[in-house]
Write a structure and sequence with these properties.
The chain has 329 residues and is α/β, with parallel strands linked by helices. Helices cover 27% and strands 31% of the residues. It is elongated and about 60 Å long. The protein binds S-adenosylmethionine.
């Protein structure tokens, strides 16, 4: 695992961290073990709400925007998205003023391809291969051209590296947008709102009085703020599976996530369904889209008195639950 490489490299003296100064760790998941680093010198950047909360609850100094100055060294936990990994290397290089950067990643997340590009851009100080991944360390990287840039999609939408569906509208969301009931009104929530595609369609209904966009990825939410200019929209950085609104909703819409990292995780989609039921008023309605193969019907039937299979497509099903059952949570 990740920590094995880091602690091995530090223990064997292959890597030595600067004696003084702060250490920036970019993007560790809750599974990363950072115990090889001196906690009191570490600042953790996380854009994902529950990961940020995880590190904060463990006593780490945490930030939700990338600092651009003031660090002696940085560790980048390579994400799956190459543009995001490169943007994080650029940010780490800037924050350390060209100092030492460690980059840790799994082969399945493309660390070898990243290493190839880094060889051309930086003074490579060392690499350690272990546990299906690599730790790479370097300094003096010339990577200003890797800094985050916005992508403009058709329809005038802005996205940024690493957000869900950064390169184009998600097929499932497009199916739900096209079939979205006209009579959606009242207080509405979009669970896992991403950069705001579905929300923009929801807000085309004049009966909608407010729309909460609940999204765990702060960068996606920042994009949604650029994409949606409507006084009825409220942008909530939060974990949709835990969020409880001050007032119940009339309608909840979602294209729920079904992956954690690379691994399929239908339990996450089920947690979204349970959360939607808990957020809805007694006569409220939940509408969702899902890949045909995902098994959500049982959870919908457990959570709602009425479940409907709306017309979907060969690839996607559109499901609706009405009148949440009131189970104790
Ligand atoms: C399938 S995408 C749908 C995005 C957007 N609604 C769209 O149509 O493009 C699911 C979204 O849920 C977000 N997400 C994942 N886990 C979450 C959680 N626990 N709470 C809130 N949002 C979450 C992801 O970041 C992603 O943006």
């Amino acid at each position: 695992m990740f920590h094995t490489r880091l602690s091995l490299a530090l223990r064997d003296g292959a890597v030595s961290l600067p004696q003084d100064g702060r250490l920036l760790v970019i993007g560790p998941s809750a599974q990363h073990d950072l115990s090889a680093l001196p906690t009191d010198r570490v600042t953790i950047y996380s854009r994902i709400f529950h990961e940020h909360a995880h590190w904060t609850s463990r006593g780490y100094d945490t930030v939700s925007t990338l600092p651009d100055i003031g660090f002696a060294a940085a560790l980048v936990c390579a994400p799956r998205s190459k543009p995001l990994a490169q943007a994080w290397v650029a940010a780490a290089t800037k924050a350390t003023d060209g100092g030492q950067v460690l980059l840790d990643g799994q082969k399945t997340d493309g660390i070898d391809s990243l290493l190839k590009t880094i060889r051309k851009k930086a003074d490579l100080l060392g690499t350690l291969s272990k546990a299906h991944g690599k730790l790479v360390w370097f300094d003096k990287a010339d990577v200003a051209d890797w800094a985050t840039t916005d992508t403009q999609l058709d329809g005038g939408f802005t996205t940024r590296p690493g957000v869900f569906s950064a390169d184009g509208i998600d097929k499932g969301s497009a199916v739900l947008a096209a079939a979205m009931p006209d009579d959606i009104d009242g207080r509405v929530a979009d669970l896992g709102a991403g950069w705001g595609f579905l929300s923009q369609h929801i807000l085309q209904r004049s009966g909608v009085t407010s729309l909460d966009l609940i999204e765990a990825d702060l960068v996606a939410l920042d994009c949604a703020k650029l994409n949606i200019d409507d006084a009825r929209a409220n942008f909530v950085w939060g974990d949709a599976t835990q969020f409880r609104p001050p007032q119940l909703y009339d309608v909840v819409i979602s294209n729920p996530p079904f992956h954690t990292g690379r691994a399929g995780n239908p339990e996450l989609g089920r947690a979204f369904i349970r959360a939607a039921a808990a957020m809805l008023a007694p006569s409220g309605r939940f509408v969702m889209v899902a890949n045909r193969h995902l098994p959500y019907e049982d959870t919908l039937a457990e959570q709602f008195n009425v479940v409907e299979d709306l017309d979907g497509t060969p690839g996607f099903k559109l499901l609706s639950g009405v009148k949440p059952r009131r189970t104790r949570r």
